[in-house]
Amino acid sequence: MGLYLRGSVWWMSFVDPNTGKQKRRSTETTDAKRAKRIFDKTKGQIAEGKWFEKLPGEDHTFQEMMERYMEEHSRPKKASSERDEASLKRLSPFFGSRLMAEITPQQINQYKNERRLAGASFSCINRELALMKHAFNLAWKEWEWVIDNPVLRVSMEKEPPSRDRWLTREEQKELLSVSPKWLRELILFAVETGLRRGEQLNLKWKNIDLNNKVLTVLGTKTGEKRSIPLTRQALEVLAVRKSLDEQKLQSDLVFTYPGAQMVNIYTLRTAFVTALEKVKMEDLHWHDLRHTFASRLAQAGVDPYTIQRLMGHKSFTTTQRYAHHYVESLRRGISALDMQRPEAV
Predict the structure, then answer these.
(1) Active site residue 341
(2) What mean pLDDT is predicted for residues 211-238?
(3) For the chain, N or C: smaller number of CB within 10 Å?
(4) Which of 41, 269, 287, 309 is an active site residue?
(5) Catalytic residue flag (residue 213)
(6) Domain boundaries for CATH 1.10.443.10 within the chain
(7) Average pLDDT for residues 205-222, to the nearest whole number?
(8) Is 221 a catalytic residue?
(9) Which CATH architecture has domain 169-331?
């Protein structure tokens, strides 16, 4: 233990009784006598077992943590920022002004109960807790604002089975027949490539190799690059878009709203809902077009590993939701056994 000068400020050196590691802390004073009093107080706290490392989280509020999280991690990922903003609007009134170090599993459980009473779905509550958990993990492991993550000690809600909705060929034909040309191209390309909405709307010509009939995309959720071979129908859509682009638009984006404008997600949503209403089609979301791509692959007997790579799933667990579609693939496996079996004597 000891005091020493660093520049004109006095610093103290001592051993952390909790970790056994050497600590160096500024006394934040240039006065030698005041620095010694601060040092003596610290030594007394250590001797009495009352000294604890003070972390920034003791002074930071939940809202300050979330502002940093949104700025550094959520908003740069445009595909998920909209969802995170919606979750934060629910979390902030309850946790906003609380100091991070004061947030406990009991308080988080109370929040869950209040959200249930308000009629929130289990999936919504889980998304909100997942956002909070991720932010606390960063504050704990990277920013060193807190010493643990209280959300880890709170159980998530048990959600009902995932939706299993995809377009039949007949539904697709009906939907395309009532859609304007720009929307029709987007729908068809979505079911032929399985791109996420953000990936498709931000797709640029430089990401497409027409000679080798493949597109390359950086996953908006996983951040990983993947290549998708293009089907005949996908190539036909691109041929129309390329011809139009060369004639009039000269846009870097593959898909644009009439007038070379980038397709706004709200414009897309309105046009899609309008088309659904025209054919009286219910319970279909834009994301279900991506599910249609994966379901058709599975129904055609494509193996799960290939589907995982084409979809850009980080976890194989996500791909397993399509397992019940693999009937034909399983049937071929059984047929292979029958072919190997010797004739009965």
Answers:
(1) no
(2) 86
(3) C
(4) 287
(5) no
(6) 169-331
(7) 85
(8) yes
(9) Orthogonal Bundle (1.10)
Which of 60, 196, 296, 325 does the annotation list as catalytic? 196
47-56: long-range contacts, CB 8 A cutoff, minimum separation 24: 49/17, 51/17, 52/18, 53/16, 53/18, 53/23, 53/147, 55/101, 55/144, 55/145, 55/146, 55/147, 56/143, 56/144, 56/145
pLDDT tens per residue, range 31-77: 889 889 888 888 888 787 766 666 666 678 999 999 999 999 888 87
CATH assignment, 62-153: 1.10.150
Numbered ranges of CATH 1.10.150 in the chain:
62-153
Asked whether the beta carbons of 11 and 5 are under 8 A apart, the reply is: yes
Active site residue 4: no
Strand, coil or helix: 208: strand
HSE value, Cβ hemisphere, 13 Å, CA-based, for 318:
12
Widest distance between CA atoms in the chain = 103
What does the pLDDT read at residue 173? 95
What would the pLDDT profile of 98-123 be if each residue is shown by its tens digit?
A: 988 889 999 999 999 999 999 999 98
Angle between helical axes of 287-299 and 304-311 (0-180°, round to 10): 160
Q: Which is catalytic among the residues 290, 291, 296, 325?
A: 290
Determine which one of 69, 111, 322, 326 is catalytic: 322
Query: What pLDDT does residue 81 have?
Result: 79
Q: Could you tell me which residue, 94 or 251, shows the higher pLDDT?
A: 94
Give pLDDT, residue 345: 41
> What percentage of the chain reaches a pLDDT higher than 70?
83
Contact status, residue 202 vs residue 216, Cβ threshold 8 Å: no
Instruction: Please pick, among 98, 184, 213, 221, the residue that the annotation labels catalytic.
Output: 221
